[in-house]
């Protein structure tokens, strides 16, 4: 029992100092209600039935310097005759304990219910806010569609007017050609009906003169109308992909976009620490390019950090593990290089001609890490596997030959 304590009071508060005797106290060691105070620090115990009720909500306890200092605010301003209630028998003490525990349980239950209600209200507010944002986005998209529709309608009307002008010009040209054909036929008929040479000459002269005048008038009529000046604007539909849209690639592109959206959804739900990053910094491809630049500059540790974040965003890209293995080789993290190369080989399945180069690099990097760990047999196996994939690579063949000599030298020395 901790019986040594000191206390003083004012009209509104009681100040109690309790020594700890070398024991270590935590906030969980203290229990306080309106008229009951308990401090349990095994093997020590302090228990007090207070003289009058206190405001346990605003009362405080500070632990430090080997003491617990209580500041207990009285519910009713008055001076106490003593700190504890005099002549408190066991039955009354037991009753006060049980009442304090029950009240504490009810208070904890009320706090839990309040937290639950508050959490539901926050969820409801978040849902409403999300619905408002989605509604605003939907309205914005509809407005853009309506503007685009109006624009296309205007362009279609302009095209129709241009088509009408072209049809008019064609009809005028056809009429001119028909008129010329009729004149030719009339000229042939007149030549056939001429009775003598003299009259024919005079008629021919007159016909020539009349024909030349008519043809001149016809040429004037056949002049086309000036073409209307206009500016044709071509608007392309925005695309995520740099290549042009092809029907044969639609399903493949939609699948890629779906996977990207699913990955972003997983990131937003699971990686709350990435909320401060920019949108492009959440793209594994952008992170891979950035890490490649860091590797080229010799910043291997920064490249590893970038690859780590890219792997957290998308752990199905074998090139991320393959490039990170190269960084680990430069940093002498040989076991991690072996682990990343093995993971890259696991993802580079099935073996196809498109991933031959990546598989060769994975085998070479894992074999290099094994050799630097002096595990030459395992390293030789990886180099031989790389040679099976690319048998014309002279560099790999030379390195494999060196490893064989090392193994033979090791066996002879042993």
TrEMBL record:
TPR repeats lie at residues 360-393. GO terms for molecular function: nuclear estrogen receptor binding. This is Dynein axonemal assembly factor 4. The keyword Nucleus applies. It comes from the Eukaryota. Its main location: other. GO terms for biological process: determination of left/right symmetry; epithelial cilium movement involved in extracellular fluid movement; heart development; inner dynein arm assembly; nervous system development; outer dynein arm assembly. Residues 1-84 form the CS domain. Pfam families: CS. Keywords: Cell projection, Coiled coil, Cytoplasm, Neurogenesis, Nucleus, Repeat, Signal, TPR repeat. The gene is Dnaaf4. The keyword Cell membrane does not apply. Residues 1-25 form the signal peptide. CDD domains: p23_DYX1C1_like (cd06469). It is found in: Cell projection, Neuron projection; Dynein axonemal particle; Nucleus. GO terms for cellular component: dynein axonemal particle; extracellular region; neuron projection; nucleus. Residues 85-192 form a coiled coil.
